[in-house]
Design a protein that fits this description.
244 residues, alpha/beta, TIM Barrel, 2 domains, two-stranded antiparallel ribbon, 10 strands, 49% helix, disordered N terminus, PdaB-like
Length: 244
């Protein structure tokens, strides 16, 4: 009797191990994946809409000419990600962005990779830039593009817990490399897809964007695209997100 009982206990243990190894990790992996915070690169839509986005963290020579181009081209929807120090140093330009009706997002305070620092530092930096932007423009930011686009799952989780949606890009103009006006234009207009988030810069480091931007706008319109803010893009279609 004891030997039968012992055999049954061994068999039961073997079954539990087998099912535990076969099922447990898959369920945990699915749960982890479902709950993993994500950054947004584009939205899935058949409508020909794109979001033009501009990061600004330095200088006052390029931002206003970029705004002038948008006005001349009658582009009423765009999203600007502003750093805290730049906003405080150039409040008149930041206010102009707001007054022209463009969306404003957060681009952090110090231009350093968030993944190299603890959550406490990230929260402090984002709070500082949020305060600066609000002080100058009255905008309480909810979208953030991290400096250098740097993040990892921990950073995303921290920012999500602060109430922020992390915005990346699907098409990178590489305008900050100043590769030539036509290279910038070609890169954007050939890569753009419906629901795209397009990365450009209105910092002084982007020396060719002012000349490239009118061509980008005209060619995208000729392809049938309309321009919306990032928030409008997110509200109108399914989100494509990823952790890279």
């Amino acid at each position: 009797m004891k030997s039968i009982r012992r055999w049954l206990m061994s068999a039961l243990a073997a079954c539990l191990v087998a099912f535990g190894c076969g099922i447990g990790p898959q369920v945990f992996a699915a749960s982890t994946q479902a709950n993993q915070p994500k950054a947004i690169y584009k939205v899935d839509t058949k409508e020909k809409v794109v979001a033009l986005t501009f990061d600004i963290s330095w200088g006052n020579k390029v931002p206003e000419p970029v705004l002038n181009v948008l006005k001349q081209q009658n582009v009423k929807k765009a999203t600007f990600f502003l750093s805290g120090p730049w906003t405080l140093h150039h409040p008149e330009i930041a206010k102009k962005i707001k007054d022209m009706g463009y969306e404003i997002g957060n681009h952090g305070n110090l231009h350093k990779d968030f993944s190299n620092y603890p959550d406490s530092w990230i929260r402090e930096q984002v709070a500082l830039s949020e305060k600066s932007i609000y002080q100058v423009t009255g905008v309480k930011t909810k979208l953030i593009r991290t400096p250098n686009g740097d993040f990892n799952p921990r950073v995303l989780r921290c920012l999500n817990n602060m109430g922020y949606t992390v915005i990346q890009w699907n098409t990178d103009s590489l305008d900050w490399k100043n590769p030539g006006v036509q290279n910038i234009v070609s890169r954007v207009t050939k890569r753009a897809v419906p629901g795209d988030i397009i990365l450009m810069h209105a910092s002084d480091s982007s020396k060719q964007i002012v000349e490239a931007l009118p061509q980008i706008i005209t060619q995208l319109r000729n392809q049938g695209y309309q321009f919306v803010t990032v928030s409008e893009l997110l509200a109108g279609a399914n989100v494509s997100s990823n952790v890279r």
